């Protein structure tokens, strides 16, 4: 497996299982998995191998989590699939442009947005924790169109372009746009995230930038983490998702700050 030791492979599999769990609950598992790959892969391999391997592994965990949510959570499957299909195309486009973008310019902007989001969620303790009231009308066409534009096109393109925190951004966008609670938003985000991962993988895979000997083993652990995370979120509800959301946002800000000023 590209000169990777057994110990390193086991540590990468552990990181994949934790990433699958985080992704299933609220998104942001790439905070664990992608840095682990960048550290664990042989230094002679370019970073694109970490990106490609990350996408190949992540798609399995998000798919398992999406299926778990679809079977047990209240989920508008048709809308989720529309968002996912649009996100797939947008992520593929973002991946094609990834090499042409100066990420040092975008990262500070993302950090500002995330800090604002963290402050908002902290100061609004009921944000996304209340389920929709019985008989609540479905979202209007205008709200659905806004969700397709922001989550499907915008965040999908972002995932292909940069990537970290995509699932978290999806949850934060879907709660206000579609008036969902955090649990339902997380369930919908999993379907969309499958699309973004497939879109990126369609660009990376033909270029051979994925370690296919390592992918099946990490994928198994990622799926196990995704299954466990989805079941835990369903069992504990939106309040639990909110706590994990704040933790992931804090981790994402720290990771981007490290990349920007100290890496």
TrEMBL record:
Topological type in the membrane: Multi-pass membrane protein
Record InterPro entries: TM_pro_TauE-like (IPR002781), TSUP (IPR052017)
Stretches that traverse the bilayer: 48-67, 79-99, 105-123, 144-175, 210-228, 240-258
Predominant location category: membrane
Superkingdom of this protein's organism: Bacteria
Protein family membership: Belongs to the 4-toluene sulfonate uptake permease (TSUP) (TC 2.A.102) family.
Full protein name: Probable membrane transporter protein
Organism: Streptomyces hoynatensis
């Amino acid at each position: 497996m590209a000169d990777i030791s057994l110990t390193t492979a086991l540590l990468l599999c552990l990181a994949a299982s934790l990433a699958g769990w985080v992704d299933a609950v609220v998104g942001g598992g790439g905070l664990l998995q992608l840095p682990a790959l960048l550290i664990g892969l042989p230094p002679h391999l370019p970073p694109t191998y970490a990106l490609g391997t990350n996408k190949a592994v992540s798609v399995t965990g998000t798919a398992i989590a999406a299926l778990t949510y679809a079977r047990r959570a209240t989920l508008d499957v048709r809308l989720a699939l529309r968002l996912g299909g649009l996100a797939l195309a947008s992520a593929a486009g973002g991946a094609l442009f990834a090499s042409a973008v100066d990420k040092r310019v975008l990262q500070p902007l993302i950090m500002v947005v995330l800090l604002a989001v963290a402050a908002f969620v902290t100061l609004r303790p009921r944000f996304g924790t209340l389920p929709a009231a019985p008989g609540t009308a479905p979202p209007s066409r205008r709200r659905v169109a806004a969700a397709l534009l922001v989550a499907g096109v915008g965040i999908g393109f972002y995932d292909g372009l940069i990537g970290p925190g995509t699932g978290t951004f999806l949850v934060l966008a879907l709660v206000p746009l579609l008036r969902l609670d955090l649990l339902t938003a997380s369930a919908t985000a999993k379907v969309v995230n499958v699309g973004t991962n497939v879109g990126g993988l369609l660009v990376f895979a033909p270029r051979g930038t994925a370690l296919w000997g390592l992918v099946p083993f990490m994928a198994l652990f990622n799926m196990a983490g995704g299954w466990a995370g989805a079941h835990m979120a369903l069992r504990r509800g939106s309040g639990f998702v909110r706590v994990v959301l704040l933790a992931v946002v804090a981790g994402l800000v720290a990771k981007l700050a490290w990349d920007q000023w100290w890496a």
